[in-house]
Amino acid sequence: MEIQPDKQNIDQMDTVLAQALGLSESQLDFIINYGIKYRMGQGASDDD
Fold this sequence. Notes:
By secondary structure, the chain is mostly helical. Helices cover about 60% and strands about 0% of the residues. The protein has helices at about 5-20, 25-35, 35-40. Helix 1 (about 5-20) packs antiparallel against helix 2 (about 25-35). The protein is flat, with a radius of gyration of 12 Å.
């Protein structure tokens, strides 16, 4: 059984970590949107 990560939960974790690390809003935005297809498990075997 494979469980697809829930983007909303991942984004919440990113936000908490960004606050703890003192990152700016633009840095958080970069992290949340960086490599989204890989972070969500949709691009590991795809060729672009």
